[in-house]
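Z., the sequence and structure:
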Amino acid sequence: MATHDKGSSTSSAFSDDSFYSSSGGGVHHFDDGTDRVGGSSAQPYDSSTKAFDNTGYTPLDKSTEDAPAYADDPFDDERKKFGWTAGPDLGLLGLRAVLGGIFVLHGLQKVFGLFGGPGINGFAQSLEKMGYRESVVLAWVTGVTELAGGGLLVLGLFTPLAAAGLLAVMANVIALKYKGGFFGPNGVELELALAGMAFAALFAGPGRAALDYNRSWFRHPLAAGFIALVLGAGGAAVTFFVFR
């Protein structure tokens, strides 16, 4: 398309200046058919009719447009983002309640002789038969560890230390009974189950339904679990190899 500005009559060195000057002079601007912006569809400008004419064009079908490259991204997950739920906390609360409750009852048997338990003296005699020295001291240590560790586990307070102490007790029992096999009254089935639960509580933490909530060891369960595990393993080793 060519447009003519009448306000300009300056001649130039081009060969077609005479043609444009004969039409009144001015500067001519050429349009190569570029689409105009605006309206419902793009229409080329027709210089003869001085109007936009799109009879020779077919509107673009939007459905044929290529989808963006990221539309087929296999890693683009449009599902609802995972958020906090109470499920893990309820599960850990149940784990702590069952495991801690079992050890509280066993601690009451050993320390106070309740529920048909042997008491300190009776438990000390059992330790002597197993080959332990300083049986009375070990009886108190074991009974208090089960009683206090179980209670703290139920409350979710100082959970790594409580779980490590109970795990150390079970490690000694398993070391004494492993020759009796897995099943039966002399097997280690129950002790392994309790030890596994204590190990889970040691590294999983107490959950939010606990007195440990938002404490430093609650926010760093892996580090706190390893530290408590080392302490528990040291106590179990001293009990088994030094006092036996």
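Confidence is low (pLDDT under 50) at residues 1-41. The longest helix spans residues 87-112.

Let me know what you think.
H.
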